[in-house]
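EI: anyone free to look at a 562-residue chain?
SC: sure, send it
EI:
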Amino acid sequence: MKQEGTAEDVSPEPTPYVPRLIASNNMLEALLESMPFIAFVKDENSRYLYANLEFERLMERPRSEIVGATDSDLFSEEGARRNVRNDRQVLATGEVLRTNETLQPGGVPREFTSVKFAFEVGGRRLVGGMVYDVTEQRRIQRAVTDSQARLKAALEAGYDAFFILDAVRDDRHEIVDFVIVDVNRNGERVLERTRWELVGHRLTVLLPERAEAGIIGRFARVLETRTPSEEEFTMVNKAGETQWYRNQVVPLGEGIAITLREITGQKQADAMARQHTQVLENSLGGIALVSKEGLFTFVNGEFCRMLGMVPEELVGQPWDVAVRTDDLPKAQNAAEQLAQLPRVELEVRGRRQDKATLVMRCVFISVSRDAEPDGFYFFAMDVTEQRRYERMLEEANVRLREQAATDALTGVRNRREFDLRLEQEIIEAKRYERDLAVVMMDVDKFKAFNDEFGHPAGDDVLRRVAGIVVMAARGIDVVARYGGEEFVVLLPDTDLNGARQLAERFRRALEGASWPLRQITASFGCAALGEGKSNPESLIAAADRALYAAKAEGRNRVCVEE
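SC: here you go
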């Protein structure tokens, strides 16, 4: 390796003291030989007396070619001259000299930090030195600095307010306050104060009302338990407007970091969503940018959280990895529509890494550059819980409708539901010239049964009567409790003769059943839609008259009204 410079005033022979000294100390020799940095010793004329194994590796030549050589033998003219100058400075002052320089071993630029010092061996002044390869360290430092700068820029450019606070402790090391040490532009906007009015000031002074409400204790718990915390709250700005915010507090060293997001718009959007409206375009949620090649180039934290992934697992991947396979055709079709439409909305199921259910309300917005398509924005909001509650509400409504149409004691339809169905069936029968009949039935001597055996036993009879009739009825028939011990059966597509046959089937089923206390029978009256029986009232009245005729003729029989 040639470095720029030449050596000056070098002696012709190496001094053997240092190698003998190193060789006589096994621990020192082992230490120097195993060090991950260059170690060397030179005499007062800059001739190398010792070089360790790392020096050999860097120079890419055996030690026999290094020991005894001068800087001018090993390095470029300028580099040798600089080394000799530094050696003389160290020998003259006795001070440790630290320098930074860039060398090119093997033609590849690398950064080094060197330390030189003077010492005596056998009455001679010698120069010792160590050279550290700090290329990777400097690269990491630059990367960290760059990352911090980018993070700072991102925080400044983001929609969220961001604060860093340090804990203030008392003599007992208990947290009594927090002081703001950094804040971004949105933090200034939210608190309606400049950075200089915020940084260095305590929360108890800046926000006394919030401090009294327990904010110091909450932040202290985050720091002491190292457990992040989230909270939604309201603040009234100087204009007297109430605004909603959500903050996330995370421990950060001996302090905390706070991300504050205004969610007033989201609160309003949630209220609209409960009325089945769409989410506004600018509502908070997952945000991703898709290139014209169809690859994710950016995903925000909320997008990653929704999918249970980290940015590295998404950036560079096709955008459709976020959508479940069975919803892909719909999502891909929506993306293709962006060629003609600036915005497309749809709802799809997301593909979470843990396989959990995720329903996303999505908005695709096209991005163009110089009038040419340049990918699209992928906005997504997690509506899983909303859809789950909607399903629960719908199921509850179905159950309520079912309960509202059912007789609580017998489980068959109640009178209200029967009246509705009868009116609908009469309209349908007239429109399509179909037959329609009803059967009214009454449990024989039910009052006497109740008086003798009690109402609980009577209720059991009514439940069993209803069950027997339902089992004997057809699938299209509607069995209902009309009141007390009276039941009615609606018979679509059935004429009067068919009604008589079905009523007889019901009668025989009741008569043939096994009853624990006494035989139970019923009387039946049948009527069919026709002249003089063209509306619900007249049809029911006709069936009721036939029922009374059956009871008058001795009960446990079927009568019809022609």
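EI: The longest strand covers residues 110-121.
SC: 👍
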